[in-house]
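Worked example (supplementary).
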Amino acid sequence: MSALQTVLATPEMTSGYVSAVVITGLVVVFACLVILVLFLYIMGFIFNRDKRSGKKNVAAVTDKSVRPEIKPVKANSSTKAVQGGISNEIVAAISAAIAMIGEKTGKKLKIKGIKRASRQGSNSWANAGKVDNTRPF
Amino acid sequence: MIDKFLDTIVDIAQESGIAGFLADGGWKNLVMIGISFIFMYLAIGKGFEPLLLLPISFGMLLTNLPFTEMYHPDLWNISGGASIDFGKVLHDGGLLDILYMGVKLQLYPPLIFLGIGAMTDFAPLIANPKSFLLGAAAQGGIFFTFIGAALLGFTAAEAGSIAIIGGADGPTAIFVSSRLLSGNGATGAIDTGTIALAAYTYMALVPIIQPPIMKALTTKKERAVKMDQLRPVSKTERVIFPIAVTIVIALLVPSAAPLVGMLMLGNLLKESGVCDRLVKTAQNELMNIITIFLGVSVGATTTADKIMNTKFLGVIILGVLAFCLGTACGVLFGKLMYIFSKGKVNPLIGSAGVSAVPMAARVSQKVGQQENPTNYLLMHAMGPNVAGVIGSAVAAGVLLSICV
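After joint prediction of all chains, the assembly is encoded as:
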């Protein structure tokens, strides 16, 4: 530390001061972020308790060797829900958009069918735009 | 009549910018204009941080064209504890002086943080809270560089301003340096513009600076580690997070509140899902306007006497040292986590703790994929990356508390 002191040019920058800045800085940054880590773990524990208990129930069921009833999937059941002429890409895009809305709102959304809307009335995108721009603060 | 004509021509010539170049020390302005061209080339030709480097380099050009009177360094050069006379700036200042008030009053950086918050997804951090520790470790670059700055003879205020470059966060660097370099410790040798220029240049060079350090400090086996998928994060957690972070940080380090508070306000607007219009404004119009104002006014402060001196050389050297140390601290802490987690944590994500969102996380992803093409570290690296933003804001608060 004395060697450090000899090369410190400015009078205010004593070796003690520089060490204090470094140690204080690292300790405070770590302390703040460790508190946030603990908070996030507690928050995660609380909000994921339901999910974990759900998983445990599933595990309990499998332990008892009770096989869940598996219903056979009807052939073409998914294609029937999609109106003819709608490509797989459009179905994928709509599914992704709905999945994102579900994730954002925290609701479990299910697609039961996809069909073209009637051309009557104004365009849905135009309506969405109008609503977005005229919504009051 | 011809005499009068010739006199007028001579007067015009003497008042022109060309005469300014021929005046005493005018060649320095030419050199600075050359440097501004280099930065313009880096921004336009190479795509290095163009949103900031282009306004900064153009501000540099404007301020070094003689007699433009857009920026007056004498209005801002204060020493001996005097304060800036903002009334005089408004009365006598040029366009860039007026815009620069937003920097000196510490308005722009928190407003940019508002926009960053509105664009940032903290879910990877909430899903893996340990990432916070990597974000904290990478701030070691800031504090170890402080020692280097002290050894090179900088004052505490200058050393703090240089050290914060290691946070790899432009708005934070500007926020800290504008406040520290306005106080008693300011000698006038370096300025906010100098710090910003170094910070943004190195941020643009993150993909070049970081990989050699990451590879040197890790083994092939460590770099190839595949991490478990992150858990989904509920909306409630996303909403609580910005509120909790604001309360914790503002209570522990109040001087970090302007940055962290605005960052979290932006994030809360986004995550609440009920303020779409405000979010769009914060993410786009507000952010873009402030970016232009900030860039061009900070660029204007890079006058020849501020850049062409040995102090600036010191800033450049210490700046790159800060980046390297920050990266090394993050990676080394990542190695520690690799050991304690019994090989479940890839140490490469530690380097993303130096902020520079999202570039540093992309570097982790790229280096990881070089060892294992099927490895996707991006989302894991985003945790330390956004933690680094909060960590550097806290470090800024500490420096402001100690070095003022």
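Two points are worth noting when inspecting this output. Residues 121-232+303-403 of chain B form one domain. Chain B is about 70% helix and 0% strand.
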